[in-house]
Design brief:
mainly alpha
Amino acid sequence: MHTCFHLREDTDSSLVFSSALEIHCINMVKWRRLKEKDIENDPLHRWLVNLDRNSPPELVEEVAKMDSAIMAANEKMNAVISDDPESEFYWKRVMARMDERGRLEYARDEGRNEGRNEGFAEGIEQSAIKIAGKLKKAGDSIEKIQAVTGLSLEVIGKL
């Protein structure tokens, strides 16, 4: 039902990135099927009752009273989802930051793509010039070289 992962160094698994960083995965289907839930002694069980959308509201209220961290988390969540003007301002600010981040990422990606495309086109032109030079040395006509490489007569003439 519950697995916990830590970030470790690839070549030395004894080296943990941070003891404060853990990734917990919970199988909520298995949790819901669990017959014996120990909310009295197991903080994880209290948190799962709190997070499970299928938990009865009375039970959620009971575990919040038992655990100050759950109570604090619920208070913060209620403040975030409330309809007061501060909450609305908070969410507008969050959305504005996300929009700005999205615009910057888009612009960065477009710039990278543009640079790749320009570099790609330059590479193709350089290859065509090399081929044209070899064809010219081999004695092929300028018209044939132009047909094969797509280069202008002016560029081929300078080779």
